[in-house]
Structure formats: structure tokens, C-alpha cells
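A note from the maintainers: we've had questions about how concatenated examples are separated. There is no special marker in the raw files; a new sequence line simply starts the next protein. For clarity in this README we add a label.
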Amino acid sequence: MKINGKSVNIDELVDELDIKNNFRIHRGNDIYLSNNQINILERNNIDYKKYSSLSSLIFDLEEYLNSEMCNDEELDCLLAELAEMNYYKNTNK
């Protein structure tokens, strides 16, 4: 298939999306996380299972990033994703 004059293979594009690891799954306590997000949390020794809500996880991530003077860009991006997800989930439209 050609898009904008470039040959594109749909199967390769789907593989690049890595849907299996990027799809958010209900992990309990109204928290939805992808496998990739869980891997980031685990690398930083953060146990998402102990949180009762997404808001409490977000709060502790902010505290961790601020207090530890942590400069983990990946964790910072995860925090932004979770905050955005929480905003759209809990905002009356």
C-alpha cells in the first residue's frame, strides 16, 4: 500500500504499535495500566498493587519525583500519562 507516495506495510505498522504491551488492562482498585507502564513502575520499585486509586498512585509518583530529585524522564512521562488519563476519567463532560 502507498501512503503519501511511500510504500507502507500494514503488518509492520501494527507490529510497531506493540498493542499487547501498550494496551491498558484493569489491574484492580480502578487502576488501568499497560504492561509497559508496569515495567516502568517496577524498575523504580513502585508497587502499583498497594494503591487504592489512580489518584493516590499519581500523588506518590509526584512525591517520589520531587523528593528523590529523580531525573527519570520515563517515569516523568508515565506520570503525565496517568494524570491525563485520570483527568479525562474523572472530569464531567
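[label: protein 2]
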Amino acid sequence: MTMKVIKYLLPILLICFFMACEISTEPEIYDVDATIKTSEIYEYHTGISGDEEGAAIKTQAKNFEISEILRNASTNFEAVYRYKSNTGFVGLEYVELELKTGSDGASPPKNIKNIKIALQVTK
């Protein structure tokens, strides 16, 4: 009797275990380098526009007048990162974005990308 229970219960438990385990993947990391003048607005187009896709600032810039992700009719609902330095700032600026795609709405995103943007701000 015990062997029959184990014979049928063990596969069910294993299936439940594997279904409950979440696949953990490290995010893909991309480096972007750009040079802008203090008077310019830099834009990074993420390509993200789906309802279940997301974009967020993971590490905020430090010397900014504008540092935001804009997603509205003016960007055709694509998530676009925008940066403009503080007046008079010259130097290296850094911001990191986190992009998430691959969700069906019922599950978490399957694809995570970290975009590390280094901006050299000149006069």
C-alpha cells in the first residue's frame, strides 16, 4: 500500500515542485555612451510600447533639470528616456534604466534589460 501511494504521489509532487519554481535569469546589460551639450535634451528610445511592458529608472542621474521616462501621445506611447543637465553642469552623468518585456499579463516579465547610459555633458 505504501509503495503504491509513493508511486503515484511522487510524480504529482515533483510536477507541483517544478511548476512552483520560478526561472531566475540575470538581466541583460547594455552600455550606451553619448556626448551632449548642456543646452541639449538627450533621448533614448526604448522600443517599449506594449501594455504589459515596463520601463523604469533604476539609478537616477544626479545633475539634471530633466531625467524622466515619458510615455504618452507625444512619443506614440513608446517609453522614451529624456535627460537635460542642470544649467552650467559639465561632466560625466550616469543613469540606469530597467526594461521589462515578455509578460502575458498573468505572469511576470521574462526579459529584463538594464541599460547603463553614460552621458558626457560638454559646453
